[in-house]
């Protein structure tokens, strides 16, 4: 088994290097919920085709990217942030990182240029697992679980290198995986 750490809210899921599912290919996911009822999270490194202004035309600071949070409920908008002093009501998922909160407050802060990409990240849709599904996928080595990462990782906009950087950050045991080709037949 690749992963030595169990899944939990606030931990990262890193897809195995040869995952074929296009929804999760070379993905890094922050888990926001994990319980016997299932799990939920957001893909951190897959940009959607939209900017925030495309999905919220009443928000004047429209240049913030919207990420593809996963294949479930793509018509919903979610966010994580690291500014609980600015956005009330979020759920702390790991030290200093919050999921959701007062959406109208967040929109106003974005419109007034009082939030930056290093403080908030928006997602269309989410990634979800039924009871035991994620645990089974981890046992099958589809995912590596990480609990030691910098909070800046969550707000990185380096979509191309985030997966590789997170894998290398796992240490010597995993670093070689970062250099595997996406298609093993090209090796």
The 3D shape can be described as globular
Helix fraction, binned, reads: 10-25%
Count of DSSP H/I helices? 6
**Approximate strand percentage:** 25-35%
Task: Write up what this structure looks like.
The chain is of the alpha+beta class and 187 residues long. 21% of the residues lie in helices and 31% in strands. The chain is built from six helices and ten strands; from the N terminus they run E-E-E-E-H-E-E-E-E-H-E-H-E-H-H-H. It has helices spanning 52-55, 103-111, 133-139, 151-154, 159-169, 172-175; strands at residues 12-15, 28-35, 38-43, 47-51, 65-68, 72-81, 91-94, 97-99, 120-129, 143-146. Strand 7 and strand 8 form a beta hairpin. It is globular, with a radius of gyration of 16 Å. This is Transcriptional regulator. Belongs to the UPF0301 (AlgH) family.
Which features characterize this protein?
AlgH-like, alpha+beta, Transcriptional regulator
Write the SSE topology:
Elements: E1 12-15, E2 28-35, E3 38-43, E4 47-51, H1 52-55, E5 65-68, E6 72-81, E7 91-94, E8 97-99, H2 103-111, E9 120-129, H3 133-139, E10 143-146, H4 151-154, H5 159-169, H6 172-175
Parallel strand pairs: 5-9
Antiparallel strand pairs: 1-2, 1-10, 2-3, 3-9, 4-5, 6-8, 6-9, 7-8
